[in-house]
């Protein structure tokens, strides 16, 4: 169940896409150094407008490169960082992880998964039709959110493309991911 970091991204401005970097530094309890979403409390503008004192459960955004592959096969021009993620992974079923799963990235960094990214209309502003492409339905008609997962930084460290990712699962029973 181990995977690999394929790209890392950050942006100090509240832009939709984030430029890829050679490395990023994760700061415990805060997020990605130099990123607009760094902080103990929420930084996403819509959430700040509702309640700026909410804890920031969205310090780090991760997307699986396999989603990019599927979107490209469907005709969307999408690459790492362009959907706002900080870390792009390969070889992990991010969407299948339970709440509280811990991703050990590189030598020291640890991110605890808090939930699913709630896709927004900005996806369609970036690429028309992208919002619908990252949503689906399971056999029972339940909505599937495919736009990645969110997490908080438990232990800091530098993360680079090529770094291994090791998963530690929380004790059972596992709680499925929900939107955060």
From TrEMBL:
Residues 19-168 form the MOSC domain. GO terms for molecular function: catalytic activity; molybdenum ion binding; pyridoxal phosphate binding. InterPro entries: MoCF_Sase_C, MOSC_domain, Pyrv_Knase-like_insert_dom_sf. PROSITE patterns: MOSC. This is MOSC domain-containing protein.
